[in-house]
Each structure stands twice: as C-alpha cells, then as structure tokens.
Amino acid sequence: MEIRNLAPEWIPGAVELQRACFPPPFPVELLWHPEHLARHLEVFPEGQFVAIEDNLVVGSASSLVISEKHYQKHSDWDTTVSGHFLAAHDRNGSTLYGVDISVHPGFRGRGVGRALYEARKDLVRQLGLVRFATACRLPDFANSGFSDVESYVEAVVSGAFADRTLSPLLRYGMICIGVAHDYMDDEESGNAAAMLEWTP
Ligand SMILES: CC(C)(COP(=O)(O)OP(=O)(O)OC[C@H]1O[C@@H](n2cnc3c(N)ncnc32)[C@H](O)[C@@H]1OP(=O)(O)O)[C@@H](O)C(=O)NCCC(=O)NCCS
Q1: Which domain holds residue 15?
Q2: Where residue 113 sits, what CATH number does that domain have?
Q3: Cys staple from 47: which of 63, 121, 161, 167, with CB 3.0 to 4.6 Å?
Q4: Ligand 1: nearest atom to the Cα of 136
Q5: What residues are in contact with ligand 1 under a 6 Å CB criterion?
C-alpha cells in the first residue's frame, strides 16, 4: 500500500470508494462527484491523498487550508469548507482542515487510515501550519443508548465506549476539543461531530 497525492487517473476510484464508505442513511448528495475532486486538484493538490494497493484506490483523504479567524468560528461542514469545491481554501491560513477520510471496508484495520493521517501531519509540518483539525462523525451514537452527544463523546474519549470512526481518529493522536451540533445532515451521528485537533 502506498500513499500518493490524488491524480486525475485516481478520481473514478476515489468517487467509487466514497460511495462504499458512506452507505445510506448518509445523504448521497454530500458525496463527491468527479468534478468536485478535479477542482480540489486545481485548488490545493498537495492536500489531496489516496492510498493505492494493486492499482486500486483503497483509501482517500481530502483537505484544505483555512484562516485562523474562519477556523475559530467552528462552523458546520458546509460553511467551514465553503461547499464541495472547497472555496474556503486560503493558502495563507493557519489550519489544515480534514474534509473527509475513507478507507474501503475490506481494507480497514490495516493502518491505511493511520498512513493517511501521517501524510496530513507531514503536510502540516512542511507548510509550517499551526494545526491539523477536523470534525469527526459519530456513526455509533444513534444505536448507543446515550441520550446526549456530549456524554457519548466523553465515553468514547475515556475508552469506556468505542465508536468505529471516532476511536480510530483518537488513536492517531487527535485531541477532542468539543462537540459541534448540526455539523452536517448525518442521522447516525445525531447530526453532530466531535471537534478534533492535532498540533505538531
Ligand atoms: C475511520 C477509518 C478512516 C479508519 O480507517 P482504518 O484504516 O480502518 O484505521 P486503522 O487501520 O488506521 O486503525 C486505526 C486504529 O483504530 C483502531 N480501531 C479501528 N477500528 C476501531 C473500532 N471500531 N473501535 C475501536 N478502535 C478501532 C485500530 O485498532 C487502530 O489502532 P492502533 O493503530 O493503535 O492499533 C475507516 O473506518 C473509515 O473509512 N470509516 C468510514 C468513513 C468515515 O466515517 N470517515 C470518517 C469521516 S469523519
């Protein structure tokens, strides 16, 4: 398995991968179309990564750089990235912001997500940025029996409960700084997300 920057030839595979990773009830209108990924390559090619094994895209991760002022507002997904074409990208900003990450279900638990995160951290160092930040889905919240997202996130952070997405991201060294309500239309996560940061 190799981590590379996204290139035009990997776009169809990355689009297909995302559909395999975000099945219903995740809203299909939030998923990438080829023209979105093509635009990401124009806007910020260094921030787009894929994991390739046997000529197949088995993982992908998109990011952009946002300004400090914009980051500190901790807005919802759409406002933070300014839509699917990542119009909020600001090369003079402070924060590498994770837009999405996907690892094919058949390739999970083998360190692909960790390798994509290492590539993101290397980019933060290379560009001299302040931090890597993202907001993480909580797909096991809906069936967890917890009535509020804050208690759920606290339980996952403490290790008392596992979430199939938040738990891996915490293993990569991401620190939870709070909960974002109404982050995106995401039924399984109660429309919320855990706000995460890493500083070099
Ligand atoms: C989250 C995701 C990217 C993780 O990718 P992955 O390649 O399977 O993760 P890794 O193999 O790097 O595993 C990372 C760590 O998390 C742990 N882990 C993995 N799944 C876990 C689970 N369900 N519960 C608890 N810990 C888990 C692993 O043990 C590993 O720890 P270690 O490296 O310290 O031993 C992947 O599951 C995914 O694509 N999910 C669906 C899409 C999604 O929700 N994306 C996130 C949007 S915010």
Answers
A1: 2-198
A2: 3.40.630.30
A3: 63
A4: 48
A5: 21, 100-103, 108-114, 136-137, 139, 162, 164-165, 167-168, 171
